[in-house]
Amino acid sequence: MDKATLTFTDVSITVNVPTGTRIIEMSEKVGSGITYGCREGECGTCMTHILEGAENLSEPTAFEIRVLEENLGGKDDRLACQCRVLGGAVKVRPA
Amino acid sequence: MSVPPFTIRPAAPRLEGPSGPVLVAPGVHWVGALDPGLRSFDVILKTANGTTYNSYAVRGSEGVAVIDTVKAEFADEFFARLEAVARYDEIRLIVLNHLEPDHTGAVPELLRRAPQAQVRLSPRGLPMLRALLKDEFELYDIKGVTTGQSVSLGDRSLQFYTTPFVHWPDTQCTWLARERVLFTCDLFGSHYCDGRLFNDLVGDFRFSFEYYFDRIMRPFRSFVAQAIDLIEPLDFGIIAPAHGPILRSHPRDYLTHTRRLISSRLASETGSEKTLLIFYVSAYGATAQLAQAIHDGAAESPEVRVSLFDLEGGEIAPFLDLIEEADGIALGTPTINGDAVRTIWEMLAALVDIETRGKLGAAFGSYGWSGEAVRLVENRLQGLKMRLPEPGLRIKLHPSAAELEEGRAFGRRLADHLTGRAAPREVDFAEIAAR
Ligand SMILES: Cc1cc2nc3c(=O)[nH]c(=O)nc-3n(C[C@H](O)[C@H](O)[C@H](O)COP(=O)(O)O)c2cc1C
Ligand code: FES
Ligand SMILES: [Fe+2]
Ligand SMILES: [Fe+2]
Question: 20 to 30 A Cα–Cα from B416, which one of A1, B145, B174, B286?
């Protein structure tokens, strides 16, 4: 199984995760302030700021892009319930 | 039937209000509705004499704009007032400063009557408007707008200011520069109903203004601060909110007063220190001992000011003022009948009234055999959007010397997270998944 690392700076913890993991699957368990509402990419509650490794995340779908725009997300923001870690190192904090 | 010698009338002044539209400024009319009978709003606040839903019509040389509407039950009243100042085919623009039902109850019908109108709202209102209009959403010219964008009505234009979370994520303010009127929707509102409408004419609504702030705006106070920063430079002569009196006499005083309301309620004296508050409830003293140990551990850090409180010795409201200013809280509770104790839940329930997002949270407690309480409290703290860097500390019955040392270490780590000195940790997926 391929590995990647996912760092949550607000609780200073790095998790070694299998590739394909969604950020939300880990953020809740490590106690990060990244929280969720719908878990279906609709509400924007889980908006997350990507500090490093944005290129290691799955491409946003058209729907995620629309929800990010409507929630006034910046260019380094993603939805934690939508994007998957594909490899390498990714560093995040709540948006 | 004999005629009574007098008729009983409600004692409150002018609750019936004006039957037609009311001029607010040249070309600007109030076309809202009075709801004198309302006693409970949004389930969370009371009102002793109802509220108003203020909607406004702005006439320009090239059409009319409608700013917000009313609660659905009052749609007829709203349409009657609107029809007295404009024809539906003149309506060029509908501005929705906020999508809550108390302001959008007449929107679907207004759009049916004025389908040519452009609808402008904050981008975060779009998904809500989609949910409100369903299939009809596609029929209209609906666009999200952000700070700096404007729509012209010919000789005057309306400019938008995105001010999220001055209630919901979708809130915005609208500025009519030519008449110096600022439409703020829920911001600067009060649930106070008086048909005389203007702050220099109505009864004493001061506590209503503050109470409304406390219940509606306080949980978002950092957003209120951002909104005020954004609109403060505008040279407004009238603040036209969507509830309660229209503020045309000394409008800036209400902005200044709101600035006071969002600032700390306590004398500020901690300077650059971080503050950690530890609250506990304890039946037999086990959780209390643990609380003391956590306190002692955290207090070893000179940059952290630690306080310890027995929740049963205080009232919730003053504790909330304290928590609002704190950087972190730790809550201790024994497990009683498979749950955290009621006093802790009362405190946790009350935390929705203040801004908790981003604060550090932690839970601890003594238990006998199952120990559910700590996890339940942690879930609630996460729901309040706090960060919980340390998994909760649970100790079976009274803590041993070694367990008290564990408590002190837990306190030290909480302090480190507050000062930013916490050592980075690396853990495996499997370990986390098991939590
Ligand atoms: C009425 C009552 C109900 C209890 N229910 C539970 C329970 O459901 N699960 C559990 O783990 N412990 C339970 N306990 C045990 C307490 O959690 C345990 O005594 C703990 O050490 C009390 O901590 P304290 O001294 O801080 O009050 C219960 C105790 C009492 C008095
Ligand atoms: S939780 Fe709602 S968008 Fe991710
Ligand atoms: Fe509202
Ligand atoms: Fe409202």
Answer: B286
> Tell me, what amino acid is at B139?
L
Measure CB to CB from residue B385 to each of A5, A35, A70 and give the nearest one: A35
Q: What is the pLDDT of residues B175-204, one digit of tens each?
A: 999 999 999 999 999 999 999 999 999 999
Going by pLDDT thresholds of 50, 70 and 90, the confidence category of residue B271 is confident
CATH code 3.10.20.600 for A3-94:
no
B288 is written with which tokens? 């209390």
Residue that the structure tokens 């908006």 belong to: A47
Q: How far apart are CA B228 and CA B187, in angstroms?
A: 10
Measured from the Cα of B284, ligand 1's closest atom is 25
Domain positions in chain B are: 22-263, 270-434
The complex's ipTM works out to 0.91
How many contacts (CB atoms, under 8 Å) link A and B? 81
Structure tokens at B48: 């002793």
Query: Which residue in A has a C-alpha nearest to residue B426's C-alpha?
Result: A14
CATH architecture of B22-263: 4-Layer Sandwich (3.60)
What is the percent of chain B where pLDDT is above 90? Answer: 90
This prediction has a pTM of: 0.90
Which segments within B78-193 are labelled E, that is strand? 91-96, 118-121, 141-144, 150-152, 157-162, 172-176, 181-185
Considering the segment(s) B270-434 as one domain, its CATH architecture is 3-Layer(aba) Sandwich (3.40)
- CA–centroid distance, A23 to ligand 1, in Å, is 36
